[in-house]
Amino acid sequence: METTEAVGAPGSSLHGVTGKEPAYAFSVDSKTQLDTNATFDLPVDSEHKATKFKLFSLANPHMRTFHLAWSSFFTCFVSTFAAAPLVPIIRDDLNLKKADIGNAGVASVSGAIFSRLVMGAVCDMLGPRFGCAFLMMLAAPTVFCMSLVSNAAGYITMRFLIGFSLATFVSCQYWMSTMFNSKIIGLVNGTAAGWGNMGGGATQLIMPLVYDLIRKAGATPFVAWRIAYFVPGCLHIIMGILVLTLGQDLPDGNLKSLQKQGNVNKDKFSKVLWYALTNYRTWIFVLLYGYCMGVELTTDNVIAEYFYDRFDLNLRTAGTIAACFGMANIVARPLGGLLSDKGAQYWGMRARLWNIWILQTLGGAFCLWLGRANSLPVSVVAMVLFSICAQAACGAIFGVIPFISRRSLGVISGMTGAGGNFGSGLTQLLFFTSSRYDTAEGLTLMGIMIMACTVPITLVHFPQWGSMFLPPSKDEKRSTEEHYYGSEWNEEERSQGLHGASLKFAENSRSERGKRNVASAPTPPGNTPEHV
Amino acid sequence: MAGLRLSKTTIALLLLIVCHVGPSMAVLFSQLPKTLIVTATTKSGDVLHAGEDKFTVTWALNTSLPAGADANYKTVKVLLCYAPVSQHDRKWRKSNNDLKKDKTCQFTVVKQDYSATGKHEYTVARDIPTASYFVRAYALDASDTKVAFGQTTDANKTSNIFDIVGITGRTTGIFVSAIVFSAFSGVALAFFYVVENKKKK
Fold first, then answer.
1. pLDDT in the model for residue A260
2. Could you give the 3-state DSSP secondary structure of residue B78?
3. What is the pLDDT of residue A477?
4. Residue A436 to residues A87, A98, A302, A332, B175: CA-CA distances in angstroms?
5. With contacts defined as CB-CB under 8 Å, which chain B residues touch A98?
6. CB A447 within 8 A of CB A367
7. Taking Cα atoms as reference points, which of A508, A467, A512, A506 lies closest to residue A488?
8. A148: nearest CB among B88, B92, B175
9. Which residues form the signal peptide (chain B) (predicted)?
10. Closest by alpha carbon to A196, among A390, A61, A391?
């Protein structure tokens, strides 16, 4: 039952992304059947998916898969943002203008919007292992060819092509949903996403360091940055080969069964898409994610050059400071999810919405402060606070996404992710490409835009749980979770009983009423929310 | 009485802090006298290649100035400076009247002890980027503060601008390596895919 849904259903390649799946998405009860005959390093369920998560193990296949998947994603972040800390050198070598640098930044995040959609289909067809490896190995030439560019057009083109590799996010999440039981998939995928995003910070440390070493070995600046690009390129090849040799698609290593069941489409894609597009909450969250993940990607692109120019730092120092921004992901993103869960325990969904609004608005305020700061220490403090709030907001947003829709969860997750990249491209185009604003002004304006674009969350209203300012609906029929999730199916489908999973989900989601829930329908056993 | 003494100490402390920490008076370019006459063997529109071509820069104190005008000049620093066309849309090369923040001149041609006249033959360094340039010389006093200047171009920085073509850094070694590594990547992928498909059969 679970495998077919995990593999064939539209948007299934994004299962597990949201972090709330363990408790609600599948009909798993607390007495998950453990297969005690299996000889894996971790306890596994009947499909041989691991039910425990042992972080510092490399045991085949589950934990090994985890480490292969997140490090591939990490590598792609490193190569996509590798140019950012080296821009002060590249801009002189290629005679770039501000517009060229800005456009390249836009290009670097735009490619992934499309490649992510394709990757879902590739994973369904070839399996996540080949999907990941294909992308890593085919992206490697684009990274190497960056060393050969000689003008602005070449620079922009290569950054666009390298950016396609960010689709490893999809293969990473998909791969782990085949290896880990749904009870822990949220934690696993959340950790992997955060650690992968860290690559955007790590690259700001790695590239200047490699550049310095090559310079010390005697190369001129314009040769050194080109040689430095071989490092992420080789990482791509190494990771690709590791994935191909050490990885496997399923716990039992059997790709055939995956392909067989992959043809079973339990739901019509057109309907799934329709319910995603016509739910106004989808669009609000796309906008919101564009202004938390989007600004994170934007800042990864501009912050090193900003510190280099504004405070006359050398490349290594500017890179180290810039790295602090991306590296905060290791704690900040899970923190956002945790705050969301804690709030929901007491006050339900309304707390989750307020949590997002507070974190994201604070992030915008700190971004504004960063743009206005005139001294280095103040700038760094503002940047760190900005990074924590923005990344926590990302985690918090994915704490709410599973509740927007049960039927179209995959598509909505995918759209939200794409919204992040789109927001980044738009912001870089508006504020960091034209000569009208210098980077400090751009950051200030970005902060204001973040705060403005977070306001729409006040409009998100769930009839059964309320919104930021309004209580839940008093109407007896509309104030039930069943009504909300059932309304995604028409009469015909309901008479066929196709909405069974949605009803189960509705029952499980009653915890979003907060403490109020104690008085209403009893919570079914074994369905307490998992904390990411 | 105690209160008065305290405030005197405070004032003394403040003065001490201000004298040590307070910023030195900003040197403004607009206030620098143009006392040096600087010429270079490059002509307007010349194209020089980094690492190969040379030019000679000559500087001399303007003889029409009263004697002793150069009393505090201790060193001469000659720099290669970006012309406005190369500063356009590039805020990291922006001219600023406050010389501490000025980014017009980023490459040193020569720095030597001051004499009323001087010349230097300069081979364009290998790491000079492609752009349009002019030459400026600053006279520095004993504390390395700029006190006077001269430049090969006019006040609007439009005359006598020459171009330098930089070395791009795209060496043959890098070119070949990139091709080889890329090919390896594609071949390795194809190899693994084919082997795996054969195994399945």
1. 53
2. strand
3. 84
4. 20, 10, 16, 33, 37
5. 89-91
6. yes
7. A506
8. B175
9. 1-26
10. A391
Q: Measured between alpha carbons, how far is B109 from B57 in angstroms, rounded to an integer? A: 9
If one counts every other C-beta atom within 10 angstroms of the C-beta of residue A402, the result is 22
Q: What letter represents residue A244's amino acid?
A: L
Measured CA to CA in angstroms, residue A192 lies from A54, A72, A189, A389 at distances of: 13, 10, 5, 19
Distance, CA of A436 to CA of A61 (rounded, Å) = 53
Site from A91, A151, A223 to mutate, B interface, most B CB atoms within 10 angstroms: A223
Distance CA A532, CA A186 (A): 6
Tokens 């709410």 map to which residue?
A400
* ipTM exceeding 0.85, yes/no: no
Per-residue CA distances from A477 to A98, A464, A531 (Å): 57, 9, 30
- Pairwise pLDDT comparison (A153 vs A41), residue with the higher score: A153
Q: Is the Cβ–Cβ distance between A292 and A394 less than 8 Å? A: yes
SS3 A91: helix
C-alpha B148/C-alpha B167 separation (Å) is: 33
pLDDT computed for residue A365 by the predictor = 97
Do residues A120 and A170 lie in contact, with contact meaning Cβ atoms separated by under 8 Å?
yes
CA distances from A481 to A30, A410, B140 (A): 22, 20, 78
B63, burial (CB in 10 Å: exposed 0-12, middle 13-18, buried 19+): exposed
Beta pairing, strands B36-40 & B75-82: unpaired
Predicted confidence (pLDDT) per residue in A123-182, tens digit: 877 888 888 999 999 999 999 999 999 999 999 999 999 999 999 988 888 888 778 876
Confidence of residue A37 (pLDDT cuts 50, 70, 90): low
Query: Which chain A residues have a beta carbon less than 8 Å from that of B51?
Result: none
CB nearest to A220's CB, from B169, B174, B188: B169
Length of chain B: 201
Share of chain B above pLDDT 70, in %: 87
3-state secondary structure of B105: strand
Tokens representing residue B177 in the block: 């390596």
Write out residues 142-161 of B within 8 Å (CB-CB) of A: none
